[in-house]
């Protein structure tokens, strides 16, 4: 899953990026509203953490422009604790949730998980396909009750496919949501990791839909 963090405080931006990366997300960052708006307008993100008080363009304006232009990614806004009006303005502008500063990093991560989960149509942190169970919160996968060891790249790819189970996901979409903007999009990395996952979960677990992409789905859904 790919996140955008827009926060002008350099230390806080760095802390948010580190926490999100440790949680398994791919992160792009911006330090002002104009840069943040540009990235959110041109790159696909699974969620955005957006500060309200930004230089060059404030967070409310950034969010309003995104929503006006049809950008629907979930947005978590960061507000000052004593500014209830910022919370109201953010929600009215199209924010999906908010966290007041100062905050505990675990709360931010929990709210991001919830936003990503709900956007994909899941109410629980666990996603199951047959015997394969993904625990989004713990970043753990089991097969028939047994833990499966995955690299961070394998886990990100499997998580994206399982979170969007039943839908054909193109290679382009996978690259855009699993890697940052500097990734070489002409490489065969996706194909390599799909091959590795098939060795661990069976050759039919990830289906290739010729000319379109990849899909995982419950066995009864494919009947």
TrEMBL record:
Q: Mention any Pfam family matching this sequence.
A: Response_reg
Positions carrying 4-aspartylphosphate are 51
Asked whether the keyword Transcription regulation is assigned, the reply is yes
**Does the keyword field hold Phosphoprotein?**
yes
Q: Which InterPro entries match?
A: CheY-like_superfamily, OmpR/PhoB-type_DNA-bd, Sig_transdc_resp-reg_C-effctor, Sig_transdc_resp-reg_receiver, WalR-like, WH-like_DNA-bd_sf
> What PROSITE patterns does the database record attribute to this sequence?
OMPR_PHOB, RESPONSE_REGULATORY
The OmpR/PhoB-type domain, residue ranges: 124-218
Report which superkingdom the organism of origin falls in.
Bacteria
* One GO CC term on file: cytosol
Q: Per its UniProt record, what CDD domains does this chain match?
A: REC_OmpR_EcPhoP-like, trans_reg_C
Boundaries of every Response regulatory domain copy: 2-116
DNA-binding interval(s):
124-218
> Which UniProt key words apply to this protein?
DNA-binding, Phosphoprotein, Transcription, Transcription regulation, Two-component regulatory system
Q: MF terms per GO, please?
A: phosphorelay response regulator activity; transcription cis-regulatory region binding
The protein's name: DNA-binding response regulator
């Amino acid at each position: 899953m790919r996140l955008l963090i827009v926060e002008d405080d350099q230390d806080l931006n760095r802390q948010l990026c580190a926490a999100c990366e440790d949680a398994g997300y791919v992160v792009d960052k911006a330090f002002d509203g104009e840069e943040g708006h540009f990235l959110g307008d041109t790159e696909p993100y699974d969620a955005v953490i957006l500060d309200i008080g930004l230089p060059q363009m404030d967070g409310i304006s950034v969010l309003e422009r995104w929503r006006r232009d049809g950008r629907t990614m979930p947005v978590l806004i960061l507000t000052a604790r004593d500014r209830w009006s910022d919370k109201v303005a953010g929600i009215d502008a199209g924010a999906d949730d908010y966290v007041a500063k100062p905050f505990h990093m675990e709360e931010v991560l929990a709210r991001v998980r919830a936003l990503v989960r709900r956007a994909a149509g899941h109410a629980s942190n666990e996603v199951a396909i047959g015997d394969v169970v993904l625990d989004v919160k713990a970043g753990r996968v089991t097969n028939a009750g047994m833990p499966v060891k995955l690299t961070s790249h394998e886990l990100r790819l499997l998580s994206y496919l399982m979170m969007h189970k039943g839908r054909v996901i193109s290679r382009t979409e996978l690259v855009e949501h699993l890697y940052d903007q500097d990734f070489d999009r002409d490489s065969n990395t996706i194909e390599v990791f799909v091959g590795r996952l098939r060795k661990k979960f069976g050759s039919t677990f990830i289906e290739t839909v010729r000319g379109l992409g990849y899909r995982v789905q419950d066995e009864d859904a494919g009947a």
